[in-house]
Amino acid sequence: MEWFEKTEHLSIADIAALSGKYRADSLVVAIEAILIDKDESAAELTESELNFLAIEALEREVNNGGFSQLFANESRRFVPLLNSALETIGASRTRALVERAISALRLDHSLLGSEPMRYLESMYESMEDPAIQDQLGELDAEYYELGEDLASALLSYTCQNIREFKSA
Question: Of 41, 34, 33, 83, which Cα lies nearest the Cα of 58?
Fold first, then answer.
């Protein structure tokens, strides 16, 4: 299948309707662009939209620099959503690996509810530990070998739940 290139203003529903005609990953990238624009405009995102962005942040960051990049970059704000987001699309193997990566950081998870900004800061600070870096490097290798097709699962979820995407 060929790569979808958004050449005109389309809604998420319009793009999702192209499933099966273009590569799933290309449609996911197009939907992500719409959601990023919405997020940057300070518009309120639905839970499904946030989950979509969380999964795409995982894919983008880990594929470009490993879990270290995910936990060090601004995308770390999506980390608390990843377990439920991955469960929602049925990506159980990736979910288990992400849980192991988060555990490797040895964070105080009680901060998540009471001090979410401190929790995110501690995620960044933990990246200074060489032992954690080594452990995350091993998990990166497992991630690349996992082979779970997150783009297809995410696109399928989007198509089945299109009403939950307010920018549809």
Answer: 83
Torsion of CA 88, 57, 21, 160, to 10 degrees: 20
Residues across the chain? 168
Structural contact between residues 124 and 76, judged by C-beta atoms closer than 8 angstroms: yes
Question: In this structure, what token pair is assigned to residue 39?
Answer: 């997020």
Residue with tokens 């080594």: 134
Q: Tell the burial category of 11 from Cβ atoms under 10 Å away from its Cβ (0-12, 13-18, 19+).
A: middle
Encoded tokens for 9 = 């203003």
User: Phi then psi for 60, rounded to 5 degrees?
Assistant: -60, -50
Other beta carbons within 10 Å of 97: 20
Sign of CA dihedral 83, 30, 139, 72: negative
Radius of gyration of the chain (CA): 16
CB 151 within 8 A of CB 94: no
> How many CB atoms neighbour CB 154 within 10 A?
26
pLDDT in tens, 32-87: 999 999 988 878 899 999 999 999 999 999 999 999 999 989 999 999 999 999 99
Q: Measuring CA to CA, which residue among 145, 141, 125, 149 is closest to residue 66?
A: 141
pTM of the model: 0.91
